[in-house]
Amino acid sequence: MIRFILADLRRLWAGAVVVVLLVALATALGVTVTLQERALRLGSARAADKFDLVIGAAGSETQLVLSSIFLQPAPLPLMPGGVLAKLSRDPRVAWVAPVGFGDSFAGYPLVGTTRALIGSTVSGFAAGRMFEKEGEAVVGAAVKLPVGAEIKPMHGTAQMGGETHAGVVYHVTGRLPATGTPWDRAILVPIQAVWHVHGLGHGHEHEDEQHHEGEVAAADHPDEDHDHHGAIDADAAIDEDFASDAPGLPAVLVKPKTIADAYKLRQEYRNGNTLAVFPGEVLTGLYATLGDAKMVLSAVAAGSQGLVAAALVLVTVIHIGQRRRQIGALRAFGAPRLSVFAIVWFELFLLVALGIGLGFLTGLAAARLIANAFTVKSGIILPVGFTGEDWRMALILIGASAVLSAVPAVLAYRQSPAAALRA
Fold first, then answer.
1. CA torsion, points 216, 77, 253, 86, in degrees to nearest 10?
2. pLDDT-based confidence at 137, cuts 50/70/90?
3. 87-122: burial string, b at 16+ Cβ within 10 Å, e else
4. Which of 63, 162, 197, 355 could form a disulfide with 155 if both were Cys (CB 3.0 to 4.6 A apart)?
5. CA-based diameter of the chain, in Å?
């Protein structure tokens, strides 16, 4: 029987290839959507895992998280620097770290922060050491700069027409281990250096807070005119004892000592001037949006699979009608009804099963290509792979194909050999 089926498929190889490809493409669409959506959820959750609480100026919760944790470039409103000083003295806080951004180098974002953030979120260095002076920098694992390299920061990005800060140079002192987060693509410098580059600090601590906000906002708006530029003292020691008159900040990352402290801090800093959010809660809202998009795409994939299944049944029924004489001859030569049923059923089932298997492999390859492109752009590693849920779906599809293949097989089973030979 197997040799008969293989001979039949060789004779009709073109049609068999079309059937396999149709099933594979319809299956691959659904598999790609499922794998990519799951990988995006897992990857983004891992990227935000080390950051318990984010505090910024009142505004968009989503943008605050995207900019401060995922380092997506966007202007954020500034909150008073006194918030940082207050948090640094709060007994409920294990550590607090400011983040300041707006500059870049070679396409990598420069992030001003503290040694507390680096020391609390990574274990050791892949090479080199922590920055100890104002003119030193630490790079993420994906930044293609060696230890000792010079960094001349640019206001904004080259795509936005940014200009290089004249006379400002950082030297790379260390490289961090890979974390699978956007911070792998970041260049980390002392926050005081970011303030000084934009004309803040250096004796400006007692100026009006609006002036502070305007200067740091200029770092987020490179297209706007700004007359105030500063410089760094490359050999100056780093001072992370923040005063209440510190310059304005787009965000601070907070590590509360306990879960109860986290909720109390969030409640306290959710007021008209500041906004405190748990990144996980914000991501949950984004996942709901992703889930809605997945439902739409999954419905499209299911619809395409249904159309392919209907087309296969139609084509196979027509094919069975054209093979009436062949089936009748098999019956006339003594082939039992069940043998005829098995030949027709197994031939179609084999093609559909091959298409499903090829579709799963194609979907996996497509999802990995998309994930790799996303990782290169964002720094977030997306874990693409099959789970038990996917294998259950594969079994369901195989079962459905077995039932589908039985439709033309039943028609062949019920066909009379005498009537078939007279046709």
1. 80
2. very high
3. bbebeebebbbbbbbbbbbeebbbbbbbbbbbeebb
4. 162
5. 105
At residue 157, does pLDDT exceed 50? Answer: yes
Structure confidence by residue, pLDDT tens digits, 245-287: 888 889 999 999 999 999 999 999 998 789 999 998 888 888 8
Q: Write down the pTM of the prediction.
A: 0.73
What is the C-alpha separation between 112 and 105, in angstroms, rounded? Answer: 13
Report how far Cα 5 is from the mean position of its chain's Cα atoms.
45
**What would the 3-class secondary structure string for 153-211 be?**
CEECCCCCCCCECCCCCEEEEEECCCCCCHHHHCEEEEHHHHHHHCCCCCCCCCCCHHH
Of 227-236, 277-286, 311-320, 400-409, minimum mean pLDDT range? 311-320
Residue whose entry in the numeric block shows the structure tokens 């294990």: 94
215 DSSP 8-state letter: H
Q: CA 146 to CA 185: how far, in whole Å?
A: 14
- What one-character DSSP code corresponds to residue 380? P
**H-only helix segments in 48-114:** 61-68, 82-88
Half-sphere exposure of 100 (CA within 13 A, CB side): 31
Q: Are the CB atoms for 103 and 152 separated by under 8 Å? A: no
Q: What is the pLDDT of residues 335-365, one digit of tens each?
A: 566 666 777 778 788 888 888 899 999 999 9
Q: Which helix (H) or strand (E) holds 420?
A: helix 417-422
